[in-house]
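Our consortium's second objective concerns turning raw sequence data into structural hypotheses that experimental partners can test. To show how far this objective has progressed, the report includes one record in full. It was chosen at random from the queue rather than selected for favorable results. The single chain below, 191 residues long, was entered without modification.
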Amino acid sequence: MNGYLGKETAIERMNNQLTIQVVQSAFLSDEDRKPIIALCNRACEEDLEPLFNTFVGATHVLGYHNGLLASHALWVTRDLQVGNSPLLRTAYIEALATDPAYRGRGFATAIMKRVADEIQDYELAALSPSSVAFYERLGWELWHGPLFIRTQTDLLPSPDQEQVMILRLPKTPPLDLNAPLSAEWREGELW
């Protein structure tokens, strides 16, 4: 792919099945993005291209099997806040997807473990889960307190069905999972 020749931050082979690359979105051309978005569209059965356009400054974790893109996740930097505590520099995980043809091989788990390795300098990791049980197996914890979105002037309550999970990292301060949690407003999906 033109966008990352010589620009990978890491390459790893797992059991000779999955090659993982970590790539900054700035190094992805429009042509490089097409198979990533197509994979996520197939996996989620919806058009995610408009959402991808909101992921500013993302870092992608790409998993290849026999040279074909099989699995993907990305993170963006967000500021989450517990109650009135200082903002926490957070790696917010998005778009975990595995092509339906490759499911059941542990590729999503491998991608998420690699994400966790790559984000160790953040104060927190967070995501909005599609499967709480999947992420719990990987050490993620469900946030039990109320969720809010911060605007310049207000705290907007999130819908009751919204869920957020966090992963504690080496720099994570003590957290009360029952306290209010807020994230800054952003275009697209708020959480």
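The partners drew two points from this record. Residues 1-16 have pLDDT under 50 and may be disordered. The longest strand covers residues 68-82. Both points have been shared with the crystallography group to help prioritize constructs.
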